């Protein structure tokens, strides 16, 4: 392929399942909820969080397909899954308004899965091109990701809050995709 040559595919022609990688969770976890007086087995020791990530595809604001989960991870900060997730949905089924809702859960509490946080990411950019490369998502603490059209858990960090690190990460992603020269 020459320097002036490029190739493109229409998503309706791609008969492959939607696949992406969940890499890791960085940052500090919110403090655990205090135990209820009903908890007889509670000890004064710190509990060690056991986390998993649940991913659900939303198309035009409605859930589509089955949610997929990563394995449990309890190795401590930074929690590293580095796990490839394959959904039962194919690229040809996606629309320009497709979003991925990602929610992190902690199962170390006795009662039920506790929501650590969630984020939602659009799968296509403003030019209706499938997003590729690595993406750093902001988790909304204590909230499950929602895939509604006007989501309350956007994963994209606003421009005014981005720093030099985010600018360099964006350039690195472009370099890895071959969009900029060395």
Termini separation comes to 18 Å
* Tally of helical segments: 1
Radius of gyration of CA atoms, rounded to a whole number: 19 Å
- In what order do the strands lie side by side in the largest sheet? 3-2-5-6-7
Helix content: under 10%
Q: Got a strand count?
A: 7
Low-confidence stretches: none
Structural class: mainly beta
| Share in β-strands | 25-35%
| Average of per-residue pLDDT values | 85
Major β-sheet, in short? 5 strands, antiparallel
At a glance:
The chain has 182 residues and is mainly beta. The chain has one helix at 164-176; strands at 17-25, 51-59, 62-69, 79-90, 98-106, 114-122, 140-141.
Task: Describe this protein's structure.
This protein is mainly beta and 182 residues long. The chain contains 1 helix and 7 strands; from the N terminus they run βββββββα. It has one helix spanning 164-176, and strands spanning 17-25, 51-59, 62-69, 79-90, 98-106, 114-122, 140-141. Strands 3-2-5-6-7 form a 5-stranded antiparallel sheet, with no helix packed on it. The protein has a two-stranded antiparallel ribbon with strand order 1-4. The protein is globular. The protein starts with 16 loop residues before the first strand and ends in a 6-residue tail after the last helix. The mean pLDDT is 85. This is Phosphatidylinositol 3-kinase, root isoform. Pfam families: PI3K_C2. Residues 14-178 form the C2 PI3K-type domain.
List keywords for this structure.
182 residues; mainly beta; five-stranded antiparallel sheet; two-stranded antiparallel ribbon; 1 helix; globular; Phosphatidylinositol 3-kinase, root isoform
